[in-house]
Each structure stands twice: as C-alpha cells, then as structure tokens.
Amino acid sequence: MNVALGFKAHSGWAAVVTIAKASVGVEVIDRRRIELIDEGELWAKQPYHAAEELEPGEARLVVKKGIASAQRVAVLRIKEIVRRSADSGYQISACGILAPEPMPDWGTNEILSVHIRMHKAEGVLFPDALYRAAEKNGIQVVSVPEKRLDELAQKALRKSGDDISKMLVAIGRSIGPPWTRDQKTATLAAMVAMKTLEKA
Q1: What are residue 89's phi and psi, to 5 degrees?
Q2: Burial 49-85 (b: 16+ CB within 10 A, else e)
Q3: What digits encode the pLDDT tens for the residues 53-86?
C-alpha cells in the first residue's frame, strides 16, 4: 500500500504522520515524534544561539557543525521510517514538509548580528534538513508553505475549510488522543503532497 508522510519541524525535533488512502478520505496509520539531534548535543537544537558569543571564525564552525548534524540525523530518522514502513507492507510515495517563509541569502555573520535572524535561521534549518533527507532516501517530497497550508489543502482536496476541519475532527476520533495541532498540520501537509504528486 502506498502511503505519504507529513512533517512539522521544531528546533531539534519534528512531528511526523503517515497517512494512507481509505475508502473515504485518508487513514492515519502512524504518528510519532522524532528527534533531529544526537543525544548529548542539546546545543545543536539552536546552533546559531550556541555560536552567538563566539569569535566569528569559531562561530561559523559551530553553525556549520550544527547544520551538518541536523542533516545527518534527519537522513537516519527518515531511513528508519522507510524501513519501518516497508516492514509493515507500506511504500512511501510522497512526503510533505511544512516550511516557514524562505530566509534571505544572509551569511552566518549577518544572521548572528541580529537576534531575530537567528530564530528565523533555526526555524528554516530543520525543515530544510528533512527535505534534503527525504530526497536522499529516494522519496518524492513537496515543500508546503505553512502560511498557505489552509489555502493549499482546500485546493488540493477540493474541500472547504469547514469540511477540512470536520475531516480532521473525524480522524482524531478514529485514532484517539493525542491528536495535536502539529499532527493535524502534518496530516494536511501529507495530503497536499499526495495530491500534488498524483497530478504531476
């Protein structure tokens, strides 16, 4: 059975939902939290903040190391998801990753010079790591702008906002708690990716 993944990333971790087509709509067949940093590397959750007080050369190295860590761990986590899905008889055909607004082409020094830029850079880091990791694992991936999620979901699913809300409530009832906002938005991202790639 073909399934789709949806991700909502945070600093150092992500909510991931796996969906499959059902007779009516979709079915959530898995939902979990995955860690995107290695144990003992708490600083890597916010590598720009970890580099904030360092000399420029050392700061760039810390940021580079943090980005590399996120990308390495994301590849391993998605590889685990692919293996677990295959063991359960599922093939991942699509992946939707909720993405923040793109960041200007700032260098590390420019980011570290303005605190709000550091938060923005870290907000982009983990969705980007997941996107690259999905590609490296051979999964077709769609970046889903988070601010346009409702609009894109309505268009892809051909449903009104109210109908989508009712659908999410019904899914939550069928699978039971917890049914968090992250899981709901990740589910919609997976649906958008599935529909987008069906049309491609």
Answers
A1: 85, 20
A2: bbbeeeeeeebbebbebbbebbbebbbebbeebbeeb
A3: 999 999 999 999 999 999 999 999 999 999 999 9
Instruction: Give me the CATH topology for the region 2-17+38-199.
Output: Nucleotidyltransferase; domain 5 (3.30.420)
Helices 149-157 + 161-175 axis angle, to 10? 90
Q: pLDDT per residue over 28-52, tens digit each? A: 999 999 999 998 899 999 999 999 9
Domain ranges for the chain, please list them: 2-17+38-199
Residue in the structure block whose two tokens are 């909720």:
98
Residues in CB range of 101: below 8 A, 6 or more apart = 145, 147
Rounded to whole angstroms, how far apart are CA atoms 28 and 175? Answer: 7
Determine which helix (DSSP H) or strand (DSSP E) holds 21, and give its type and residue range: strand 13-21
Cα 152 from Cα 188, distance rounded (Å) = 9
Q: Render 44-75 in DSSP notation, one character per residue.
A: GGSHHHHHTTS-HHHHHHHHHHHHHHHHHHHH
